[in-house]
Amino acid sequence: MEVILMERIEKLGQMGDVVKVKPGFARNFLLPQGKALRATEANKAQFELQRAQLETVNLEKRSEAEAVAAKMTDVSIILVRQAGDAGQLYGSVNARDISDTLTADGYTVDRSQVRQEIPIKNLGLHAVLVSLHPEVSVTITVNVARSADEALIQSETGRALLSQAEEEARADAEALEAEAKADEAIMEQAEAVFDNEGLTPEAAPEPSADDAEAGDETDEVKSDA
Known about the structure:
- This protein is α+β, with helices and mostly antiparallel strands.
- About 50% of the residues lie in helices and about 20% in strands.
């Protein structure tokens, strides 16, 4: 099905473009949400008559979205959830949870504007994209923790706060990784020293003709003896 885009649609085109899409996508998403019109001759003519006005409205909305995006830069929201020792949530955090929290914090964001492919199912800091306008997006941080205090610690450390046993296991793993990297650095440094000082092992020189004759004479003396 051919449609006329009424706004920029990612991976499809810009406002005014006539594109071909699957009928189901058009009927279930583009057409009912006013993001596109059927590409009939009448609609094409009507769009051209309104193009200047539509572009003006789009610019105004984009400017408003850019102003909101500037305020939302570096925004971090906290969602408190129950979780196991390993950090896995008893449930999940979805787009509605994020949009509701943003709205409560003073940012009017609809669930459909939260670009989240799968729900969050673990404690920690998660980067989530929020589309404020077809041409304006901003990335926020969703801090999922067991409590506000743990959220603060996670914000300072930049990682999920797990149980004591899990933290110790993670610390041991990080220590082993650091030790392995240190050993690798020492080996690289040693190889560099050998290369710079010409200390790499050299192949033994091949015997000359004189050395070969001397060897033959020695063998003859031994046989005479």
